[in-house]
Amino acid sequence: MRFRVRHETFYNYSSPVSLGPHVLRLRPREDGAQRVLSYSLEIRPEPSLLSHALDAEGNVVGHAWFIGTTERLRITSAFEAETLRANPFDYVPEPGFDALPGPYAPALAQRLAPYLGRTDPDERVHAFAHAVLARSGPAPLAFLDALSRGIHERFERATRDDGRAARRPSETLALGKGACRDLTVLYMEACRAVGLAARFVSGYRRGDPARPDRHLHAWPEVYVPGGGWRGWDPVEALAVGETHVALAAGPAQADTMPVEGVFYGADVKAALAYRLHIAVD
Prior knowledge:
2 domains, Immunoglobulin-like, alpha+beta, single chain, 20% helix, 14 strands
């Protein structure tokens, strides 16, 4: 499946500002699930220096530095990428990855520690995860599928354009609804409650091409020995395959923000807008 994506981000400032360093996570990663066929990045005003490198998670990250002042910042990324994983279960889990909780060998669990730590101490999240486990049985893949379907069936999906961070899992539980980032964080926390390593992924999904309102998407990935990092999308109640293109992944949402930076000015108000076009063949 081929994705053609154009993502424009606009910042407008009420008076001239100086732009601090910016971090950009807008180039898709390349792995066994996808490859980039073309990519372009346009920034206005043009940065004095722009470099790209791999971060600690293996994401391609751009670093931009600016000189002078501006009242606007426009960032446009465009790419064509091919997704390669038609079968999201094209692997065989390693022996021993067969029962929850705590399915990892000690040495592997130590390496996965950043993805195993709980972030919400509310016992309701723990109870929610273990209720799913009681229904699914101890097999990890059965739990992951049941958790994805359970969140999809129980929680109302909502779009939040305010740019705020994902809600705490306990808050999403109480509300009974959430945006994709909220449901992703809830899924991650439930996984960690039973000893599964989970991380946050930002990117794009095929969705409904006829809809004019397209948005950046988020979903969780879980580490499966023998399969590596594998995605489940509770918004669609499916294992992630060729219908998703990943930009960046990390232990928390903050590690995947598409644009991250600061500006300097006195009594300045900033406004954010974006335009996103996704075409899929």
